[in-house]
Amino acid sequence: MSIKNSKYYPLFFLFFFVDYINAQTTANGKIVDAKTNKEISGVDIFINEKNDPALTTASGSFAVQSDTIIYKLRFQKKNFAQENINITPENATNIFVKLAQEKVSNIQEVVIHNEKPKYKNKKENPAYAIMQKVWERKRNNGLDKFDTYTYKEYEKIQFDANNLDSAFMKRKIFNKLEFIFDYKDSTASGKIGLPVFLNEAIYENYGENKPSKRTKRLLVAQKTSGFQDNQIITLTAKNLYRDINIYDNTLNYFDIGFPSPVGETGFSTYDYNLLDTVSIRGESAFKIRYQPKRTEVLAFQGYLYIDTDSYAVLGATLKSTQKINVNFINGISTELEYDNPDENTFLPRKFVTEIEMTPFSKKKTAKSILAKRSVDYSEYQFNKPLEDKVFKRTEEEYSDKFVDKDDAYWVKARPDSLSKSEQGIYDMLDKLNQTPKFNRIVKLYETLGSGYYNVKKLGIDLGPIFSIYGKNEIEGDRIRLGARTYFTRNDPWRVQFYTAYGFKDQQVKYGAEARFMFNRVNRFTLGAGTRRDILQLGVQLTNDDGIMARTFASSTLFARGENASLSSVNQSNVFTSIEPWKNFQIRLDGTMQSIKSANPEGFNLMYYKDGNLRQTTNDSHFTLSLIARPGAKFSQTGIDRYEHGTLAPTIVLKYTRGVEGLFGSDFNYNKLQFMFYKPVLIGSWGKTLVSFEAGKNFDTVPLALQNVIPGNQSYSLAQNTFAQLNYYEFFADTYTTLHLEHHFNGKILSYIPLIKKLKLREIAFIRGAYGTLSDASKAINVEGFKYSAPSEHIYYEYGVGIENIGFGNLRIFRVDFNWRGNYLDRPDISTFGIKAGFQVGF
């Protein structure tokens, strides 16, 4: 069972056909002293319910703009009473605002610091005393205190292209697409923006805490501007965002940990400065500015709004520093609003996150994509009886038409109406979808992102295109061509095949598989396949029986030493699987295979059976697999799903039973295997990848069926292998392995002058394996005297790596330096090695 990490499609594949609308509504006017009628400057103007001012005036006149409809302006200035004005299209211009001076006795006494003050220690800082109260009265999500709860969630994801100019508009790529610039708008910097993508979704959330813990998030409506059948844009949008809790010590963005300014460890990362007391939705709140002590670390800057009575977080803004060290990202900004129903709990009210993405440059003026997600939480109901059927999955939920709603529904369902420019996104992309040139551009980027070229008229995908060429010792240069059926993203069945040819051995190889899913709810599936190919066995312990799986080592371009340990495999497989519970799969495989050495002169797989010498291992076995992915999120409801980025673990338990005599099988045997994989955020210190495997063969089997400790003789990175082991150097009846790999996200290198400017990130890792091998398992193989298990000592290797190598925002190269820790007296080993490869991600 291979570990499949969440994949991030290269974001720059979206760029040239997506552009930006600076969706704005404007308001302007003049501000004067109500007593003297003299113009006033230095007034903070707030739009709608936002906690940060959109503008601080430099004169008596003002003009503000927003990418959403302005329905209210709030004017605040020290020593003046707050003024609120409701905005309509009729009164949005030439607004005349009078601010009345406030009596000193009505202003709460507070120590105000507009500049960053210096304190001998943090206890002298008044903000520290406030934050201590916040930590003492740390609140939990109020949903956990009720027996049952329901609430509504409105989510809007919008992509805009930013910082465009007239030269960009004149590029040949836009020939016959000029009409999209009818939707352009000018930003404050004079640049041009155009719309990209808009997705709206309505969810109904149900939860039960007693008598059992159950939750359900039901998608009841969804509307997308074009691209419904395009995988890349939709998946990119969904993969960008994670749910966060401001009270946690670590906030998850892109599966990277950022220290929370409200976390109990905040003072180790941030400086805090008490600015003022302000009114937030009628509640008095401390306004605290925070900023990182060091700008090179992954951290935020912004404001906290803390209730002056209860010390609850009413709101917060989080904005990344200019030196943010995340691939493809130029900036992050989040606004959070909370309701606090009692002294111990909070409820989410509104979250807005903006992410600025660029493929290459970190410059502020670089052409970029602005991805904005806003979520409104409403209609909370508590302790209302919920029937069991509410939590059961139904076939209707997985229907392609389930989320289709008319315009009248959306007008009523939205908490705020769409702005004129947001409505324009739907109009523009509907026109684009009818333009052949645009569809060709979409096809190109979809092909690069998915690895398949779709022939829509035939309903097939050609590919994967990145597997066309390979090379190994037996086949020499190898060409592989494949295809699969693909009509829609939610196909309930799939047929796929490939054929390959080696120019050295002049042999044709092939593989084919068909799968059909009968039920979208429990994903009951049947499948069958067959293949004849040259494979590198022994590079995976908890492997699967999938016919279309392809091992990296059988087509490696560069390797240390010659790899002659390839096998010729004829294999047929039938399987059935079902998910009786969400993210829990039960799979049963039946496999018949024959395995022999693809290079008998250099790699001996011969063994003794009943006193006879045999070169082909015939095997028939059944495998029962239990696979749990708690917390994993998937897109699409067809037989193939695409996983969102999460920190979900993978837990696999497998039992394999070999049956002697079945289709000529040579062995009865029993095997039990376990695997656990989990990414873990370690606060501001980065992320650790933990992978543990254990297994046991209860019977004697030849090398072709044995547990081989995975080696890696290539110069490429390969997950869950041992970089300094040769193929088949160790194998074991009973084994355990542990891989620990920690990504520091530049935490250490950011302290080193000059080096920190390169924005490199450091990695440290250690790997270990222990196993035992019986004398019978050695004796059954002709060259069994060569083989052994790591039973004297735990075999280990360790190393460091550098990732994030590249330029600008394109930093996808990684280099590892590996050292072998022991068993150094063996012949033909490598004690030190360098591995390198590309890893596309944040």
Automatic annotation (TrEMBL):
It holds the Pfam family DUF5686. It comes from Chryseobacterium arachidis. It comes from the Bacteria. This is CarboxypepD_reg-like domain-containing protein.
